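Support case: pyridoxal-5'-phosphate complex. Customer-provided input:
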Amino acid sequence: MERADIVKLDKGHVWHPYTAMEAYIAGTDPLVISRAEGPYLFDVDGRRYLDANGSWWVSTLGHRHPRLLRALTEQAGQLPHVSLAGITHEPAAALASELVAMAPGADRPELPTGERLTRAFYSDNGSTAVEVAIKMTAQYWAQNGQPRRTRFITLSGAFHGETIGSTSVGGVPLFREVFGPLLFDVVHVPSPAEEGGWERAFAQVQAALREHPDEIAGVIVEPIIQGAAGMQMYSPDFLRAVREATRAVDTFLIADEVFTGLGRTGARFAVDLAGVVPDLLCLAKALSGGLMPFAVTLASERIFSGFLGASSRALYYGHSYCGNPLGAAVAREVLAVYRDEDVLGQVARKAPKVKAAFERMAATLPGLVRPRAIGMVGAVDLGGGGYLASSGWRVYEAARRRGLYLRPLGDTVYIAPALNIPDAALDELLAGVEDSLREVARG
Ligand SMILES: *Cc1c(COP(=O)(O)O)cnc(C)c1O
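Agent response - structure generated as follows:
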C-alpha cells in the first residue's frame, strides 16, 4: 500500500492512544513505519529513524533480535496458546522459576520465607500487572483478618496504567480527573522527586501510616524513576525509608517496575538500587522485548499463603492470555539474552555517556533545566509546562527531520532507547537530540 492510502485509512478509522484526534486528523503527517531493525525504525519510503524511546519503552533489546524471533517462531510452531487455569506448560513453569530465582532478595538467605518473592502471576500488560497487585492486596487483607486495610498510598505524578484500578492509584491529574467519580479513594503524597526532596514525601507517607495504621492496604511506587510523570528521578533512600515504615505497621510495598524493570536504571530491578525487597513486584514492557504483550506480578510467599485453604479464598482472576506460551517463551529468551550479552554490563558502560550528554546540553543550550539521567534514561526539561505543553512537540518535529523518533512527555525531552544500542547509534542519538534542542532553543 502507498503511504497516502495507509494514512487515509488510518485517519478514517483508527482512534489513536494518547492522541487529540481532531488535531491529528487535521494537521498531523504521521510517521508510517513498515519495518524495524535493532535501534532503528524504517518508514514506508525507506527513511530511517532512531527509536529514541524503544517504541514506548518495551524494545530494550532492539527490534527483531534474532534470538527472540527464533524463540517466538519455535514456540508458535509447537504451542501458541493454551489456558493456564489449572493446567500448565513448560514456558510458563520454567519462566516462573527463573523470575523467582532472580527476584530482589533471592540472593539474601537471611530473609524470612514470608518476605521472599516466590510466586509469579501472569497477565497481559503493565496495567493488568498492577491491577493484579491491587486485587491481591485487597483480597489478602480481606480474608486474613484485616478487612479495614483497603486504602493505598500513592505518589503524586505516579503512572500505573489504564484500568480503573491502576488509574485509581495513579497521580497524574489529567488522566484521573474525568474518571473522578469512578475511582476509588487513595491517599496522595508528594512525589519524592519534587523540590523539597524525598524526606518531605516520606514525612507524608509516615503521617498517613500513623493516621490510618490499620487502614492502609499498601504503598505503591514506581521505584527510582517516575516514567510517565516526565522521567522524574529520586533517591533510593526514599525506598529504604518507605520499606522500613511499611514493615513497622505491617503493610505492603508494591513496586511497579513495568518501566524500570530489567536493566533500565542499570540495576536488574530499580528496587535493587535501594536493596529493598517489595511484597509485590509488577513487570511488563521489557519482559517480552517488544514482541508480545506479556506481564507478571511477583508475589511474596506470605501473600501467596494468604490465598490457600478453602476454595473461596482463591484469587478468582485471570485473562484469556495469562502466561501464554508465546510470551513466556519470548520472556525466557529475553532473560537468556540479558545473561549472554551482559546487558547490565553494557548499560553500566554506556550510562555515563548518556548522563554527560544531557548535562552538557543543559549547560550549553539556553532554556534547558533539570538535566537528569540514570542507567539508559536521560532527560531534560524545557521550562515547566506539564503534559500538554507544546515546546516538546517542536523538538519532536526537529528530531524527526534528523531521523530520530523522539516522543516527548510534555516539556520533558528524554531518551529511553534499547539497552543494547550500539555505541555508534547512541552517539548519533545523543548528537541528534542535542541538535534538535539547539534548533528549538534558537526559536
Ligand atoms: C507503561 C506503564 C504501565 C502500564 O503498562 P501498559 O503495558 O501500558 O498497560 C504501568 N506502570 C508503569 C510504571 C508504566 O510505565
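Residues 125-127, 130, 159-162, 222, 227-228, 256, 258-259, 284 surround pyridoxal-5'-phosphate (CB under 6 Å).

Case will auto-close in a few days if no follow-up is received.
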